[in-house]
Design brief:
It is an enzyme of class 1 (oxidoreductase). This protein is of the alpha/beta class. The protein contains twelve helices and 18 strands.
Length: 384
């Protein structure tokens, strides 16, 4: 049995690992010649780490995961601590730690684990057809590939998704812009073992530790879509948006490199019920594009891969296995998209009275409520 996997990102590589565990041959096709991840880092929460362990790539998380032992919210203007607590109760209750990692390092290690020479780069899909018991892909360079089934892990702009759904879907602007990148850890900004987030005005500034003595940072600002900003104005823009914020935030702005900082308008896609058509299945962002507000985008793709493998372990028939995958994933991924959307709206001041109420609640937070929410999300995954 052979599968074509479209996309060599986190979802595609996870799917390949899961299928190979079941003795299925995988040919991986990636549109670009050199993968340049969108976003500097990724929060791989405990459910994602469990998936990586299950798929045989747990050592990658051990190598790349930062020492995130505490979580803290600070007042954006004064810098005063609103709440700070250990994440150890979460780790003890779910059986695995969270691992914030460099996205580029993670993707690079996954490619190396599989073998880069085994991946077909520079293969952009032009057309896909199903023909009886065969799926055929035509690429823009004139080449053709065929297999028994296909996994479309080609991202939020998936070219295969319309074929599966029977229509196109529009990405929904979530209402805010995110700047993100990496800087060397500076403990005058935040502790080196803590996820620290400054909040005020419906905005966020956050740093979390990753391997290599680095902070992953991000800035969130509610803004109209399509503002004409670029790297040449990046530092000036952030200084304007975070004027009068705490000295730690100002120091972070001073330290970032505009040339390596990403500016992203955040979108998601309204959840849909269909992930499979015949012998083609959507996986990862192609099937459930979400905002990053609960840190589950990459984790959900890893979960998809685990469930895909479980379905093929249970069923020999391809169509049956893929439908089983769809039935087990559609409600889970819908809930993650909607949960992230709800958190996004509260965090970014869509209704400011709700955001102000959240700030007030943080000052009384012991960590128990936040950890309960994280635990609920984590244990809802396929590996508990």
């Amino acid at each position: 049995m052979k599968a074509i996997i479209i996309g060599a990102g986190i979802g595609g590589m996870s799917a390949a690992a899961a299928l190979r565990k079941n003795g299925i041959t995988c040919e991986i096709y990636e549109a670009v010649k050199d993968i340049k991840p969108v976003g500097a880092a990724i929060s791989v929460w405990s459910n994602g780490v469990k998936c990586m362990n299950h798929l045989g790539m747990g050592s990658i998380m051990d190598e790349l995961g930062g020492p995130m032992h505490y979580m803290s919210y600070q007042d954006g203007f004064s810098g005063a601590t609103m709440t700070r607590f250990s994440l150890m109760p979460l780790v003890e209750s779910v059986g695995e730690r969270p691992c914030p990692v460099s996205r580029a390092d993670l993707q690079g290690k996954m490619l190396d684990w599989w073998g880069r020479e085994e991946i077909h780069f520079g293969k952009r899909v032009e057309r896909v057809e199903q023909n009886g018991e065969e799926v055929i892909a035509w690429f823009t360079d004139g080449t053709v590939a065929s297999a028994d089934f296909m996994i479309a892990a080609d991202g939020t702009h998936s070219v295969i998704r319309p074929l599966v759904l029977g229509h196109t879907v529009e990405r929904r602007y979530a209402g805010y812009v995110n700047w993100n990148g990496l800087v060397e850890i500076d403990t005058s900004i935040a502790p080196a073992d803590q996820w620290t987030t400054f909040v005020a005005e419906g905005k966020r500034v956050s740093v979390m530790p990753i391997a290599g003595n680095r902070f992953y940072f991000f800035f969130d600002v509610p803004l109209p879509k399509g503002l004409p900003e670029d790297r040449s104005t990046l530092t000036m823009d952030l200084r304007r948006y975070f004027q009068d914020w705490s000295p730690a935030v100002q120091k972070l702005i001073d330290q970032i490199d505009p040339e390596t900082t990403n500016r992203i308008e955040i979108h998601d896609i309204e959840p849909f019920e269909t992930l499979v058509k015949g012998r083609i299945a959507l996986l990862g962002d192609a099937g459930h594009s979400t905002t990053p507000d609960i840190g589950q985008g990459g984790c959900a793709a890893m979960e998809d891969a685990v469930v895909l493998g479980q379905s093929f372990a249970q069923y020999d028939n391809i169509e049956t296995a893929l439908l089983d995958y769809q039935n087990k994933r559609k409600d889970r991924v819908k809930s993650l998209v909607l949960k992230a959307r709800k958190r996004c709206d509260v965090t970014h001041g869509k209704q400011m009275e709700q955001t102000l109420a959240w700030y007030k609640s943080l000052k009384a937070e012991t960590g128990e409520h936040i950890i309960d929410g994280l635990r609920e999300t984590i244990i809802g995954g396929p590996l508990g």
